[in-house]
Design a protein that fits this description.
By secondary structure, this protein is mainly α. It is built from ten helices and two strands, in the order H-H-H-H-H-H-E-E-H-H-H-H.
């Protein structure tokens, strides 16, 4: 379970192990690492590591792009351009991919990407903490883009995640 959650990222697995039960026998895996509902999987340490050792070391334009696009479970240049009201997203995505910044390609054409789940979680945390109103606005823009581009399933998933039941009811009524 730790491997799946960290997508094999060795540093995250090590941080998870360090965050485990300190009373465990040396060399043993703490039970908290393989219990699905355990709150002690080191995710806070991983998030802190990502934010201080990775995100804070990047160029401001990359940080801004990543924080703005963290609301999207999947990324493509037109979606990123729409929510950011910009025109440079394809180049930004290419640069982030070349910098190996936790961007996972979803196709062979270089059009669709996603952030590593733990990285995205840390980005969302920072984005919501830094400017909650902007984070909400970006999230709403992403939902509108998905709906306008026929990706209703993606929009529904986002609405469920945000627990926006009223908007979800409207979408289900319109797209049944």
């Amino acid at each position: 379970r730790v491997y799946r959650r960290t997508e094999g990222w060795v540093a995250a697995m090590q941080l998870s192990a360090l965050a485990g039960n300190q009373d465990a026998a040396p060399g043993s895996m703490p039970a908290s690492l393989y219990q699905a509902d355990s709150p002690h999987t080191g995710e806070r340490q991983i998030s802190d590591y990502i934010l201080t050792e990775v995100l804070d070391q990047q160029a401001p334009e990359h940080v801004s792009f990543m924080l703005d696009t963290a609301c999207c479970p999947r990324l493509c240049a037109p979606l990123c351009d729409a929510i950011r009201d910009a025109g440079d997203s394809q180049e930004q995505l290419r640069q982030l991919y070349n910098l190996n910044l936790f961007l996972v390609p979803l196709d062979d054409q270089g059009q669709w990407y996603r952030y590593h789940d733990l990285f995205r979680d840390a980005l969302l945390q920072r984005s919501r903490h830094r400017d909650p109103e902007r984070a909400e606005e970006l999230w709403q823009r992403s939902i509108h883009w998905f709906l306008e581009h026929g990706q209703v399933q993606e929009a529904i998933s986002q609405l469920v995640r945000q627990q926006d039941w009223q908007w979800l009811a409207t979408v289900l009524e319109e797209h049944g």
